[in-house]
Amino acid sequence: MAVKLQGFEFWKTTLRGARYVVAPMVDQSELAWRLLSRRHGAELCYTPMLHAQVFVRDANYRKDNLYSEVCPEDRPLITQFCANDPEVFVQACLLAQDYCDAIDLNLGCPQMIAKRGHYGVFLQDEWELLEKMVKLANEKISVPITCKIRVFNKMEDTVQYAQMLEKAGCQLLTVHGRTKDQKGPATGIASWEHIKAVRNAVNIPVFANGNIQHLSDVEQCMEETGVQGVMSAEGNLHNPALFEGLSPPVWEMAEEYLEVVSQYPPCTLSYVRAHLFKLWHHTLQIHKDLREELAKVKNLQGLTEVSRQLRLRCQEEITNGGEEAGQVVGLPFPHWICQPYVRPVPKDPVANGNGTEVKAVCHKRALSQEDSDGASDALSKNKQKKKARNPHKNFCPEQKPKYIKCEQCGNPKGNQCVFNLCRGCCKKKAYKEVADCPSHGLRFKTKAEKQKSEREEEEGKSRGLQEEEDGGLLNGTLSTPTDPHRGQTVS
């Protein structure tokens, strides 16, 4: 068994001293995007965050998200898991370790799904659990264990947190310089001071994450914090050539990405669509009809065609517009150039007549021009899409049919169920009582009676054969046939 490298030796040898890193992004850092990023300067990539428990339980999940994406050009590669159970985390690591160069524990996801699932940044106060998870993984698996964290408000808490993970066996630490509350509209600025404090306090490589929009930001961050590498997420999504220091036309990146997707199938269509929305973000604010078209198409050819139409429109603007073509207020470059997306500052609360503050209301974008009447303005975007597919669909709660509830669980009961239950409860009851429910297609009683009848028929046949054998044996013993020629002399 090869010796497992640690700390700086692991970073210099296995990760080849990587400085430019593409972040783990759910449904976004898939194989095709990683390969595109590597072509344009990325030196290390992470897989999307994978759920350790599902990875252990589901062979198809393993195949779709890691095993089928093995590619010699896609190295070095770190696989990231979210987990909250040491044993499950180690099992997932053991299943993944032969397909990557290290395993990363996600301790930075701030989304609501992470809060509900009790993982990501919502474990950052459970140091005893985290220490056990990292220590056990470091002891059991054959590749190094790394961690990605967010900072605490207090710098000393962040430093102690990082030191605890290092002591437990973490061999490389990525520090996102934002707290768990800095997300969405409240994302704000990442604290490089926190990252610098961690770098000075630990003896393992540190990657910085946050505030990276251009290559100049990468260089400035490394100079100010002293980190070994810099990780980019949103900056990379809007400009895959960020680490080259280039800002190419969007259509060049889009066409190259679509080419990679076609070379390395299968790639989930929703991933491809999301990447095109990110790349064409600024242009789609202008050509809104193509934005709607991009959201509706059902296959890769359709996405490719929408991207081609966007390119043609941009090139037409360049031809007709002269030096001012494509200039948009607030953007440093024409809208068809790859450039970062800067989130708007959250609106201040509005005071009402009583002197109390109320939150500003965000109105959803109408699905299309035809649907932007008063009735559909009250619908969510998803409901508007459903109504576009089925104009007769009714979303009014008062007019929806009322369903009688199941007596046991509260779900709608079957209309003709003999037990007045939903199918799940009916199945359990019918199985227990060996009964039928024609409404739900359950035939436990019928099957039992059929099996009983078949058994009785088999037993009857067996008894008949036995009686025949017994009767034949009895006759042979009691009545021996007489030879009519017995005692006669043959001449």
For this entry, give a set of tags.
globular, DUS-like_FMN-bd, two-stranded antiparallel ribbon, single chain, alpha/beta, nucleus, 45% helix
Description:
The protein has 491 residues and is an alpha/beta fold. 45% of the residues lie in helices and 9% in strands. The chain has 20 helices and 13 strands. It has helices spanning 7-13, 31-39, 52-57, 59-65, 86-96, 112-117, 127-140, 155-168, 192-201, 215-225, 234-238, 250-263, 269-279, 281-284, 288-296, 300-321, 374-377, 381-389, 423-433, 444-478, and strands at 20-22, 44-46, 50-51, 77-82, 102-107, 145-150, 173-176, 206-209, 229-232, 350-351, 357-358, 436-437, 442-443. The strands form three sheets. An eight-stranded parallel barrel has the order 1-2-4-5-6-7-8-9, surrounded by six helices. A two-stranded antiparallel sheet has the order 10-11. Helix 5 (86-96) links the parallel strand 4 and strand 5 (102-107). Helix 2 (31-39) crosses helix 12 (250-263). The N and C termini lie far apart (98 Å). The model is unreliable at 362-376, 478-482 and 486-491 (pLDDT under 50).
